[in-house]
Each structure stands twice: as C-alpha cells, then as structure tokens.
Amino acid sequence: MGVGKTTIAELLAARLGRHHRDSDRDIETLTGVTGREIAAAQGTDVLHRYEEAMALGALATSEPFVISVAGFAIESALCRLALARRAFVIWLELPLSEALVRAASGGHRRPIDRAELQTLSDRRSPLFRAAADVVIDANATPSEIVGAVLDGLG
To answer: Residue 27: helix, strand or coil by DSSP?
Structure first.
C-alpha cells in the first residue's frame, strides 16, 4: 500500500514496450467506484474478492502485461499459484513508517492505521519474499527501481 507499484509498473511497461494493467484501475473500471469506496460501503472482504479476481484475470491473458496488483493478492493461494506460473514477481519493499505516510496520501486507498498496517506486513512479508523473483527497496527513485528490475530480468 503506497509503495509506488503503479508508478513503477507504468515506467517499466514503457521501457519494455508492453501494456500496463493495474488492479485498482481495473476495479474502478468494472464497478465505477474506488477500492476505498468499496471497502467503506461493502467491507474489505468484498474489496479483496475484486482484487483477487482482477489479478487472476490479468494473469490469465496471453498478452505479456506489466501488472500492478493489490497487496491482498499475495494472500490468495490462487493468486500465488498464478504468479508462480505466469509472472516475474517484483516486491517493492518499504519500511512500515514510510508505508504509513504514503498510504495516508492516496485518496483512492482505504484508511489504515499503524497497527493494521503492521499486521498486514507481518502476514504478507513472508509471502511476498517467497514469491518474489527480485526484492527492491521502494525508497529508491523510480528510475533506480526500474533499472534494478531490468537488471533482475537479465
């Protein structure tokens, strides 16, 4: 949440000459509302089902996209399997204090406090680490991050 995945994915897609898919935007296109609005009106479980469906849909296409998926996707066994089979996975790692600042700045993100973010981090970090083909410090500049991803792709 707030690590810069959309920004990095857009830059990376441009460098690779590929299209970019963003699960947050896909959800908005499908529903007409933001993930934040879905979470507020229907609960985070409903939002997470949308996030899972968007990630699985993007991963099921034959076209090679650069995909930025919601953090919840890593908690879905189906998404982890699809990522392992179909994707080069990049984990943009960010210290909790910085993630909290960034999460608060995005109007499309649902509100989150430090305790919840810590819980999410504790639960997701081992899953991200296990799934990632490359781990990159999200405090680097966007161009440095894209460069590190391209290096990781070989």
So the answer is: helix
